[in-house]
Design goal:
alpha/beta, Rossmann fold, five-stranded parallel beta sheet, four-stranded parallel beta sheet, elongated
């Protein structure tokens, strides 16, 4: 039911959060700061949220991701609620990207400041109105902006683009986490293109798609006769990417022995081809990614803590 004052032009704002304190706090801010532009309503779970979205598709919905059951549920709710703002106690860049890709127009990490909340509500309404054609003759809305493969112009995506711009000029390693399909490789390529060496190679290795006994050769190369089938010497991804970026996707699939060699490579910039004795040196920026929780993998003994903290700069 509505909470607080209303006006003929007020936009309903459904607040979806299992935490009653959070619901009251956001509703209070809207009542005190929005000057009647918005009318807060409450939903305690995903079932209520979906019902509300279907009943009032022109309303704004502020949904806590944990309350509704994850980003997968965002997709279902977004089909009925085009003005969906996701919230979470986590401020993860990857979670923000996943939320927007699932259909949210914005992402707000908790705690949500009063000023930010009202600004984002106003922005949501403004974006919605700007996308609506004034008359049938105006044609379809303009296509969303394209940022190096990312599509979106919501405040949350603009925040993502800004983070990429800030980290791109550095040569420091980058560690990206996120569910499959959230655009980790697109993010890595954007970092490379905006960075200091956009004209240099960008080489991607999917560690989950390569047999473990061949992964070292794929990354560091091999000499002739290093193993059965090695009829000629071959450079690895690290050499090919010299001067540019080496993207190691699904790095948590790498075995511990190779993780130790990769750590040494990250620290020194040097390596040896499989079966070779010559020490080679390259200058590459390493961007790593995984769809697993790296801290859980460390806890389980499947991922080296020293490698993670070397990459997670």
């Amino acid at each position: 039911m509505p909470i607080g004052r209303t006006s003929p032009k007020a936009v309903d704002v459904f607040i979806v959060d299992a935490d009653a304190g959070q619901r009251r706090a956001l509703a209070g801010v809207i009542n005190e700061r929005a000057l009647g532009r918005f009318l807060p309503r409450i939903c305690a779970d995903a079932v209520e949220a979906l019902s509300a979205a279907r009943a009032d598709p022109n309303a704004i919905m502020i949904a806590d991701i944990d309350t509704i059951g994850g980003t997968g549920s965002l997709l279902e709710i977004a089909r009925s609620a085009p003005l969906l703002i996701a919230t979470s106690a986590s401020s993860s860049l990857n979670l923000a990207v996943a939320a927007v890709r699932a259909g949210a127009i914005d992402f707000l990490p908790k705690p949500i400041g009063a000023k930010m909340l009202i600004e984002r509500l106003d922005a949501a309404v403004a974006a919605w109105r700007s996308d609506r054609p004034a008359t049938p003759a105006t044609g379809p809305s303009p296509a969303p902006s394209d940022f190096f493969g990312f599509i979106g112009r919501s405040p949350a995506m603009l925040d993502v683009y800004e983070q990429i711009r800030r980290m791109a000029p550095s040569r420091a390693p980058v560690f990206i986490t996120g569910e499959s399909g959230t655009g980790k490789e697109v993010c890595a390529e954007a970092i490379h293109q905006i960075g200091a060496s956009p004209g240099r190679p960008f080489v991607a290795i999917n560690c989950s798609a390569i047999p473990k006994d061949l992964m070292e050769s794929e990354i560091f190369g091999h000499v002739r006769g290093a193993f059965t089938g090695a009829v000629d010497q071959r450079p690895g991804a690290a050499e090919i990417a010299d001067g540019g970026t080496l993207f190691l996707d699904e790095i948590a699939e790498m075995d511990l022995g190779l993780q130790a060699k990769l750590l040494r490579f990250v620290q020194t910039g040097t390596f040896r081809r499989v079966g070779g004795s010559e020490l080679k040196r390259v200058d590459v920026r390493i961007v790593a990614a995984t769809n697993r929780d790296p801290l859980a993998e460390i806890e389980a003994g499947r991922f080296r803590a020293d490698l993670f903290y070397r990459l997670h700069v």
